[in-house]
Specification:
- There is one protein chain.
- The protein has 754 residues and is of the alpha+beta class.
- Among the domains are: 49-169, Topoisomerase II, domain 5 (Alpha-Beta Complex), CATH 3.90.199; 255-332, 2-Layer Sandwich (Gyrase A, domain 2).
- It is built from 19 helices and 36 strands.
- The strands form 11 sheets. Strands 14-9-8-17 form a 4-stranded mixed sheet.
- β10 and β11 form a beta hairpin.
- α7 packs antiparallel against α8, α12 (355-396) crosses α15 (423-430) and α13 runs antiparallel to α14 (411-419).
């Protein structure tokens, strides 16, 4: 019986290899993934470069574009890179080159450009490569100086016609110096830039103390150092976590100051933040009238002040710290940066590393690089000494050498036989010019031999001692730190995350009157002089209720089912129009309708309850709801309705008056009611049968109560009210004939004496 599984290596009748689609797709995707990870997106820990960056720098060095040479057209460099080493798109190659030249992107730029290389406002606004010129910066020498000294391995280029270095012999830990970002397949890298002097100090400590803890290294490297000189405000434990695990987040914010006129001047922005975008974000808030604290906004950046954003406050009374905190929270004046120290290690595998692993592994690479450099130089010295040794033999036997050259048929073989010379020495002697046969040359040879012998002894001593090698590496690091390093640009000051100001804190409080119609149309007018009954209403609609307060106060609406909703007075349409249906702003249950509105401070107290005879006192702040559907506050029976809330200025001294359908009136102390956030409350008055509460009112001390029954009204003075005073939950006393059916109650407060 034959095996039904197809053989992956089987060939068809036409000689074409046949593979299952699953096998082919898996292999193709894995090959692509490894290519993207290793040869495109992730940097190598050795030199901190991606392949395209490495090829650009090497191609520029081959073109002679070192820091001391003249600039050349960038198109020349890009052409060499894509033609010789990197067969990809010219625009992608040029963009990588531009990034290495932008001082606001790279802490220590590798390319020195002339022309338009982009700006912080728009990093991609650089001119075409046919217009710009470039060369390497002095710092790039740290990557290239030892390239021709046998320090790195070489590999054929893509077409096998040239060789390119697999890595560059970096003299500094460039992986952390400039950092990088990249997205591979299934992984990414986000490495922030750091300060050279701090990294070198950590490396020197690690050379002396290989077992040093990360906490100790962080004393030398407290955090990243962005090129824009912003302020790092992350907590110390967050920064420590980054260097311990290789992952985390960094918060950076703009630096600002106040000038003599009281304006806020932003002088430094966070890394990779566009000044134009920040101004646009602030201007958007100003146009939306959400930032009245700001009067004007200007960009005064120039050559002397690369970043100078002027924020003019509305008045000197504006709290600058509070305003800037709001802008930090709502604009890019503060940004968070993801840190992911993912890189290709010396073993050729990508991995997230902590600070000690990165520096230790780079020092291992540096140790190997210096060892190869010294061995390369030692071989050159030995080769030269070998030649000089043969040359000295020739000078000591000059006449015989000349005779052999003149008369022997094979002078090379004769010289090797006569003086025991090697083939290399014999060729070198035969290639000598006559002018080098002067007597003085013998003295030069002896002097050169002595110098080379001393150098050989020094090299052998270095190669034979780890301590001396570490000292050499340390001295070179100190030299480079002194030559290329600078002071830290970003100050580190831990600060809590900023919080945006509430609308009530930003916008000025203005008097407002909110009006609601019976059909549920709501609107708001400025001031308290507005007559809500005189407004125009839609046909068939009329005034229901209104509330007066300020725009920074709570506006709470209550429906007949005891549910409360919250709206912002600022978001309501103007009273000049006929308003909007309140149902467009709230999610109300079918059949529910708004019966009243309350407006005031969070501490303001109202009496809430139902017509069934139960109620309680509630703070207005407890009735607030962020949901469009509101929240249930008053528990109401199926056939009952919530009462219109009654404002209580002083619950401890006020009294509550209730009138029922049976014509009874009860007055009792409001202090007998509990203060609740929601619920049914306590029994207010004794009801029998189908009796229910028709109206209620809060009586302040000394106030009179007017009962309105149809077109008739009855005013009860404080002395008259004593007849109706009772305890809570009692039935109350009967009202006079003709006033048993109370439509509403009105409070008449005593006038103050003139």
């Amino acid at each position: 019986m034959t095996d039904p599984t197809p053989n992956p290596d089987a060939l068809s009748d036409t000689g074409t290899e046949r593979l299952p689609l699953r096998v082919f797709a898996e292999k193709a995707y894995l090959d692509y993934s490894m290519y993207v990870v290793l040869d495109r997106a992730l940097p190598n820990i050795a030199d901190g470069l991606k392949p395209v960056q490495r090829r650009i720098i090497y191609a520029m060095s081959e073109l002679g574009l070192s820091a001391g040479q003249k600039h050349k057209k960038s198109a020349r460099t890009v052409g060499d890179v894509i033609g010789k080493f990197h067969p990809h798109g010219d625009s992608a190659c040029y963009e990588a080159m531009v990034t290495m030249a932008q001082p606001f992107n790279y802490r220590y730029p590798l390319v020195d450009g002339q022309g338009n290389w982009g700006s912080p406002d728009d990093p991609k606004s650089f001119a075409a490569m046919r217009y710009t010129e470039s060369r390497l910066t002095p710092y790039a020498a740290t990557l290239l100086n030892e390239l021709e000294q046998g320090t790195v391995d070489w590999a054929p280029n893509f077409d096998g016609t040239l060789e390119e270095p697999k890595l560059l012999p970096a003299r500094l830990p460039n992986i952390l110096v400039n950092g990088t970002t990249g997205i591979a397949v299934g992984m990414a890298t986000d490495i922030p830039p750091h300060n050279i002097r701090e990294l070198v100090a950590a490396c020197l400590h690690l050379l002396k103390h290989p077992n040093a803890q990360i906490e100790k290294l962080c004393e030398f490297v407290p955090g990243p150092d962005f090129p824009t000189s912003c302020e790092i405000v992350s907590e110390p434990h967050d920064l420590m976590k980054i260097y311990q695990t290789g992952n985390g987040q960094i918060r950076a914010r703009a630096r600002w100051e106040r000038d003599d006129d009281g304006n806020m001047i932003v002088t430094h922005l966070p890394f990779q933040v566009s000044p134009a975008k920040v101004l646009e974000q602030i201007a958007d808030q100003m146009r939306a009238k959400k930032l009245p604290l700001v009067e004007d906004l200007r960009d005064e950046s120039d050559h002397e002040n690369p970043t100078r954003l002027v924020i003019v406050p509305r008045s000197n009374r504006v709290d600058a710290e509070q305003l800037m905190a709001h802008l930090f929270a709502t604009t890019d004046l503060e940004r968070s940066y993801r840190v992911n120290l993912n890189m290709i290690g010396l073993d050729g595998r990508p991995r997230v590393k902590n600070l000690k692993e990165i520096l230790s592994e780079w020092l291992e690479y540096r140790f190997a690089t210096v060892t190869r450099r010294l061995n390369h130089r030692l071989n050159k010295v030995n080769e030269r000494l070998h030649l000089l040794e043969g040359l000295m033999i020739a000078y000591l036997n000059l006449d015989e050498v000349i005779r052999i050259i003149r008369y022997e048929d094979d002078p090379k073989a004769k010289l090797m036989l006569t003086f025991a010379l090697s083939e290399i020495q014999a060729d070198y002697i035969l290639d000598l010019k006559l002018r080098h046969l002067q007597k003085i040359e013998e003295m030069k040879i002896k002097g050169e031999q002595e110098e080379l012998a001393a150098e050989r002894a020094r090299l052998e001593a270095l190669l034979g001692s780890d301590d001396q090698m570490k000292k050499l590496i340390g001295d070179e690091l100190k030299e480079d730190a002194k030559k290329y390093g600078d002071e830290r640009r970003c100050s580190i000051n831990a600060k809590p995350p900023p919080t945006a100001l509430e609308a009530t804190e930003i916008l000025p409080a203005e008097a407002v009157t909110v009006v609601l119609s019976k059909a549920g149309w709501i609107r708001a007018g400025k001031g308290h002089d507005l007559d809500p009954t005189a407004l125009s209403y839609k046909a068939g609609d009329e005034y229901l209720c209104h509330a007066q307060g300020k725009t920074n106060e709570l506006l709470v609406l209550i429906d007949n089912r005891g549910r409360c909703y919250t709206l912002s007075p600022r978001d309501l349409p103007s009273a000049r129009s006929q308003g909007e249906p309140v149902t467009t702003k709230l999610d109300m249950t079918p059949g529910a309708r708004i019966i009243a509105m309350m407006m005031g401070s969070a501490e303001q107290r109202h009496v809430l309850g139902s017509a069934e005879g139960y109620g309680f006192v509630a703070r207005l702040g407890d009735l607030e709801s962020r949901l469009r559907a509101g929240k249930a506050v008053v528990t109401v029976g199926a056939d009952a309705s919530a009462m219109i809330p009654a404002l209580s200025p002083e619950p401890t001294e006020d009294r509550l008056a209730l009138a029922t359908a049976e014509g009874r009136l009860l007055v009792f102390a409001l202090a007998e009611l509990p203060e609740l956030a929601k619920g049914k409350g306590n029994k207010l008055i004794g009801l029998k049968g189908e009796d229910r509460i028709l109206a209620w009112a809060v009586l302040t001390p000394g106030a009179s109560l007017a009962l309105v029954c149809g077109k008739r009204s009855l005013t009860l003075k404080p002395a008259d009210l004593d007849h109706y005073v009772g305890t809570r939950a009692s039935r109350g006393s009967h009202l006079p004939r003709g006033f048993q059916r109370v439509d509403r109650m009105e409070i008449e407060t005593p006038r103050a004496a003139p």
